[in-house]
Amino acid sequence: MLSSPECRTRDTGLLALERVEIWSALQGTLSNAAIAKQRVAQIHQRMQQNKGDKLLVFITHDSILRALTGRMLAMREFGVMLPSAADGTYTVAGSLFIK
Questions:
Q1: Cβ–Cβ under 8 Å, residues 3 and 57
Q2: Is residue 28 within 8 Å of residue 43, measured between CB atoms?
Q3: Hey, CA dihedral for 38, 91, 29, 6, is it positive or negative?
Q4: Are strands 2-3 and 21-22 parallel, antiparallel or unpaired?
Q5: For residue 51, what are the contacts with CB-CB under 8 A and spacing of at least 6?
Q6: Which residues are within 8 A (CB) of 15 and not within 5 positions of it... i.e. 6 or more apart?
Q7: Selection from 84, 49, 50, 89 nearest residue 67 by Cα
Q8: Proportion of the chain in helix, strand, coil states, percent, rounded to 5
Q9: What is the pLDDT of residues 44-99, one digit of tens each?
Q10: Contact 25, 39 (CB under 8 A)
Q11: How far apart are the C-alpha atoms of 48 and 86, rounded to whole Å?
Q12: CA distances, 46 to each of 26, 31, 43, 55, 96 (Å)
């Protein structure tokens, strides 16, 4: 499980699986398009290296998910992201909202 270094994402990972690997590429980008582009490229590379042989879990922020998929999730909403085409784009295949 890879997590943004920010406390709430790291803590979510620790609660879910009791261990996380901190990865700065998952840190939120707010409104900095240049940083978002760089982090999305790093995430794409990591996903392509996985080859589907094991589950890859990212705990990140809405700005990263939005940059990858174009979709915005609500606070406390979890999304499952899947490749949608050979061109490296992704889609949110499903989501779960926690009250």
A1: no
A2: no
A3: negative
A4: parallel
A5: none
A6: none
A7: 89
A8: 40, 20, 40
A9: 888 888 776 778 888 888 888 888 888 888 888 888 888 777 676 788 888 888 88
A10: yes
A11: 11
A12: 11, 23, 5, 12, 24
Token duo for residue 66: 């939005």
Closest CA to 1 of 80, 50, 57: 57
Which residue has tokens 């582009």?
Answer: 37
Instruction: Taking each helix axis as running N to C, give the angle between helix 62-69 and helix 33-50, from 0 to 180 degrees, rounded to the nearest 10.
Output: 70
Higher pLDDT, 70 or 24: 24
Residues 6+ apart with CB under 8 A from 52: none
